[in-house]
Amino acid sequence: MLSFWHNFVDTIFVLIASKGLSLQLSSHFFGDLLDSIIVDVASECHRIARLGLDRNLEEEEEEMRLSAQARLRVADPSNSSEANGKYIVDIFGQNHPSVASEIFECMNCGRSVMAGKFAPHLEKCMGKGRKARLKVTRSSTAAQNRNSRGSPASAYSPYSNSTSSNRLSNGTSSVAGEEYSNGAFEDP
Amino acid sequence: MRGSINRPPTPDAEDDQIQEKQLTFQEIIDIKLIESGEKERLKELLRERLIECGWRDEMKALCRAFAQKKGRDNVTLDDLVQLLTPKGRASVPDSVKAELLQRIRSFLASAAI
């Protein structure tokens, strides 16, 4: 009976000891694995530091911070939107006037134009579009004469321009009507 | 008599093994872990969990801060290991540690005892 009891107690001890042993061992091996990973991370960071690769990281972080700021500014309802005010705030926080104000030279007629008014200017300048006035230059003349329904004989004479276009602008039957009285380039 | 005859006998391979230090229980388990490939798998698992929870990024930030303070060219690998070991060990999330410990204990149960 006693030996049975001894065996029983011994078994319990062994179980407790082995559980303790198991815990201790597993902690040890966990520490081993963790140390190994720590060395890996340290090694990588050491390399980055010595090669100066974190310089790029700093720039990237700065960019991300700026874009996050800008995003906040855009999402903020108190900012003036396109519908409300004259100025639009874009994601970089810059203001844009609704009409582009840069001034440059038109490559067709040589006049100074404002960027925001360039499209309508070109319409008049190149002779397309409603009620655009005629511009008497060599290039527009050649274009008109190319497209006009007049006689080929007058094609290269600068002075025939007014007669041929006058003919057209007086409402002669031209397929496209008024729009094309100024010698448009394209057919509809 | 030639001098070479008197030289001591070549030690036996068997004798070497007996004189060798006995492997500890721990070392035996370690060998089993490595040979079965489980150690590598455990390391990968731990690495993955530590990345997921942001631990690795924290460690990298610590290193970067240290390098900026000490000067990039003055940093040694030893510095960084010394820096990361206490903080690294302390900041592992409990769930990650528990998961790894459980897996290790399962291995011990199946392989060792």
From TrEMBL, chain A:
Stored InterPro entries: SAGA_su_Sgf11 (IPR013246)
Polar residues bias locations: 137-147
Subcellular location, principal: nucleus
Pfam families the UniProt entry points to: Sgf11
Entry GO CC: DUBm complex; SAGA-type complex
Alphabetized UniProt keyword annotations: Activator, Chromatin regulator, Metal-binding, Nucleus, Transcription, Transcription regulation, Zinc, Zinc-finger
Localization of this protein: Nucleus
Biased composition range(s): Low complexity: 148-174
Gene Ontology annotations of biological process type: chromatin organization
Signal peptide: none
Protein family according to the UniProt entry: Belongs to the SGF11 family.
Protein name listed in UniProt: SAGA-associated factor 11
Organism: Morus notabilis
